[in-house]
Amino acid sequence: MFARRGASGPAARAVKGVDVTEEAGIFVGGGGEGYAQPQHMLLKYGNRHGLIAGATGTGKTVTLQVLAEGFSAAGVPVFLSDVKGDLSGLCQPGDPAGKLHDGFMKRSATIGLDLQYRAFPVTFWDLFGEKGHPIRATVAEMGPLLLSRLLELSEAQEGVLNVAFRLSDDEGLPLLDLKDLQALLTFIAENGDAVTARYGLVSKESVGAIQRRLLVLENQGGTKLFGEPALALSDLMLTDAAGAGRINILASDKLMNSPRLYATFLLWLLSELFETLPEVGDPEKPKLVFFFDEAHLLFDDAPKVLVAKVEQVARLIRSKGVGVYFITQNPADVPENILGQLGNRVQHALRAFTAKDQKDLRLAAQNYRPNPRFAIEDAIREVGTGEAVTSFLELKGIPGVAERTLVRPPSSRLGPCDEAARAAAIAGSPVAGKYDTAVDRDSAWEMLRRRADEAARNAEAPPAPQGGGLQLDLNEFRQARRYDGKGYGRAEPETPKKRSAGRQSDSITEAFAKSFARQLGTKGGQAVVRGIFGTLFGRK
Question: According to CATH, what is the number of the domain 3-134+261-427?
């Protein structure tokens, strides 16, 4: 734990051992001459988003850790991705015997900080369920737009995927996991004419391309993401018994091998927060702070509609009380319309070896409010490890003057935690046991399989015995009646019954089953049915 020396007065208070003042906010480091001027991020503007940028090895991870500690100490839950595995140390206090301790103490003395080590409440998550609680979403929650992005689909293929989602809604076929979507796409391919007549052109080639992309995703571990129990967003917004915000750490070292899966999942999480949380305006402190590491992965080769979605979320989620902080090597990795929404900025060193690097450096310098004491462009090029050019929003949301800042050391462990500490954190988590066991509910795959089996049984049923010419099958006779049973007078036109939006008079699946039942009276046809459905649904 630590407290900044010199903090006094009624507004100054130590919040759970970390220096946070009601008026000043989170202490980030020392700036000005001799680094003696405290630099704070105002909590009330923590939801105005931010940027942490800088070349490799310049201290971005430490800055991220410092801000996460500050928000947690102020009672604000945090969600961050651990790309390199070295943010897990937040669950353990710093080590006085560590090799960095002397350097940290020297830096603390320079900026007027009384450094004391402490741990923070951490909840570990992992899409693969190896280094944390499993984290899942249903296919329906992901939606066709993000799923198309994840699968890198063409416009025509995205159209087919939209048809699949619409058919799922109309026919009451829930899409929960990958096999549900695969079964529905197979059904669409086998019944292309009926689907095309109702929803527009659907080609088998497009369906096949989507199926191949789903197979690649499945081989990359995508099946771990889709399913139930789905993540409850409220579990990301918890505090501990002392009031400190829990820091949710997503293990992303393995996930980074599938960068599109990584980016799509985090974008889905942002979108869900945006659509679910109520409007709160500008609260005294954020409801949740979201750190998006390796942010360039979100925008690499992203279609315009997706970038527009990110821009919309970044612009409007502020009023939901959520702050979004992008961490990347170069500010140019973030589109300008989104970059303009980021009010709190920490710029570590940029290397300008090429003409493009020099241009990016000039553009980065132009985003700061000038400081007459130094040239911002030169400062960004010259700051050392642990230093940064910072600018935080001041009262009334005015951008602060750029300042050359020595970032404070973290009070938690710098680097990865040990496995025993991770296991203890997982076992003691408030969501322990809630997501560990996957649930496979009745959904599209099971429903389509049952309908297929029923069609096959109807086709295999022996024909009804035929008697003399005057002996009619009673059911057949009833179906053939054309009067209402009230006499032989003129029949009144029958009022059509209202049907739900999810069920038409002759739904596609019903038409499919009926056509098979009519066409397959022969033994050869019955064998075809058994072969087709055995292939489609893997019946053993």
Answer: 3.40.50.300
